[in-house]
Amino acid sequence: MKNTILVIICIALISISCTSENEIDLVEPIDTGITVTYNNDVAPIINSNCLPCHNNPPINGAPNPLSTFEEVRTYTKDNLIDRISRPAGAPGAMPLGGPRLSQSDIDLIILWSNQGFLEDN
Ligand code: HEC
Predict the structure, then answer these.
(1) How far is the CA of 34 from the centre of ligand 1 (A)?
(2) Is 118 left (phi over 0), alpha (psi -120 to 50) or beta?
(3) Atom 27, ligand 1: residue with shortest CA distance
(4) Which of 45, 46, 53, 85 for mutating ligand 1's site (highest number of atoms within 8 Å of CB)?
(5) Quick one: pLDDT at residue 21?
(6) For the chain, how far is it from start to end, CA to CA, in angstroms?
(7) Do residues 14 and 22 make contact, with C-beta atoms less than 8 angstroms apart?
(8) What is the pLDDT of residue 97?
């Protein structure tokens, strides 16, 4: 009888721990289910943080415009993610003079790249 109760308690504990693991799995990944596009997600970040210098024509010494889908895609394939990921104040960190983009904005641009640079929904 004692053994039966023990077995029942064990089964109960195992199923409780499985349940809570599943809840953690559901909360953790932020990237499942969202589709990042240039027009909806990336352009607003670039327009407000980068266009002050990377306009067309670029100003304040910026070497390249980041004013169109094609330009932003070209530089994201090259060194843009590296530049925006650098710690605030590090040489070459963008936006020049700071402040650093929020981590969620940086993550969105990385996800846009991983999803193959969609322009629109
Ligand atoms: C205050 C002006 C300014 C702002 C704002 C700015 N940049 Fe720059 N950017 C520059 C200058 C000047 C350079 C050239 C010096 C260098 O390479 O670090 C540059 C260089 C770059 C380069 C390297 C280009 C190349 O030819 O290799 C990238 C990529 C870049 N910026 C991306 C960005 C992004 C993305 C943002 C917005 C999140 C941004 N920049 C905001 C001024 C700026």
Answers:
(1) 28
(2) beta
(3) 79
(4) 53
(5) 47
(6) 62
(7) no
(8) 95
User: How many angstroms separate the alpha carbon of residue 120 from the centre of ligand 1?
Assistant: 25
- The residue to which tokens 């070209």 are assigned: 74
User: Cβ(103)–Cβ(111) under 8 Å?
Assistant: no
Task: Please check whether residue 120 is in contact with residue 41, taking contact to mean a CB–CB distance below 8 angstroms.
Answer: no
User: Cα Rg for the chain, rounded, in angstroms?
Assistant: 23
Are 72 and 80 in contact by the 8 Å Cβ rule? The answer is yes
Q: Phi then psi for 100, rounded to 5 degrees?
A: -60, 145
Mean pLDDT of 67-82: 98
The CA distance from 56 to 66, in Å, is: 8
Contact (Cβ atoms closer than 8 angstroms) between residue 108 and residue 42: yes
Ligand 1, pocket residues at CB < 6 Å: 49-50, 52-54, 60-64, 75, 79-80, 83-84, 92, 94-97, 101
Closest CA to 86 of 74, 75, 98, 76: 98
Its pTM stands at 0.80
